[in-house]
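MODEL INPUT / OUTPUT PAIR
PAIR INDEX: 1
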Amino acid sequence: MKSLISSVVGSLIAHSVLVLLILSVVVENKSLAAIAVSANWVFVVLGWFVSATCIILSHALMDGSYKGNKAEICKTLSVFTKKKGALRRLYGWLTFTAVLCLLAYSGWVVTAVIYALTSFIFTVCVSIARDKINEFQAA
């Protein structure tokens, strides 16, 4: 239930930012775009934190000198590395592209580039963590 609530809240916030960006482009209001960009920067910084956490935890999972609970690390990493269905991935790519284009169109090109780079880095880190989980479970 807790993950459902956090998922709904996260989705609601992300879609609110998308709607705010669309609205700022349609009515040509720079203040609405600035609010959406501020929220987007929060997502970017959160993405940096989660990416670093995934890399650190996946390294600890495969490190022989780490004496902690590796099953708990594997459980934590599996939350971030769950594979999504094809429709969900398509919808994610569409919303990512829409946010990227709307950011660039509204004049926030540097923010759009950093958003794209952060998304790429996050995807790579999650892929690395997924591979480390598979290695751990195979061993």
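PAIR INDEX: 2
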Amino acid sequence: MESGGYYYYDEVTHNGSSWLCISDKPTTQEPEEGATDWLEKSAAGKDAVVVNIMSSNGNIFQNGSVSTTLTAYVIKGDTDITDSVPSSRFSWEKESDNSDTDKIFNETHAGHGHVLTLTPDDVWGRATFNCIVSL
């Protein structure tokens, strides 16, 4: 362990695993299973981290009739670790034919949390929504 501690996004190897510091404040906590300031990125024989997005009301909508909630789940191996990831690390992005409105949407939904409610104002025509999780 470093004498001065670790900062957000510091990466270390500890006991054969690769760890990423996810604390917003400096930490001296040891990286280990269950540590709140660390996210285990990889270890021999362990599964990857995957983000799944679920929609409460399907995934195809007609113009002006969008009404759904998108929820991002962060899965590590077979464990849901969503609740251990700070809300500020979830950013939603929209891709459509209108790059100007996409840019505004993306800026206002950075650090938005793992749940996104879509309304008719969010979609006109074709649009794809992604959740970027910074670990």
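PAIR 2 NOTE: The CA atoms of residues 64 and 120 lie 5 Å apart.
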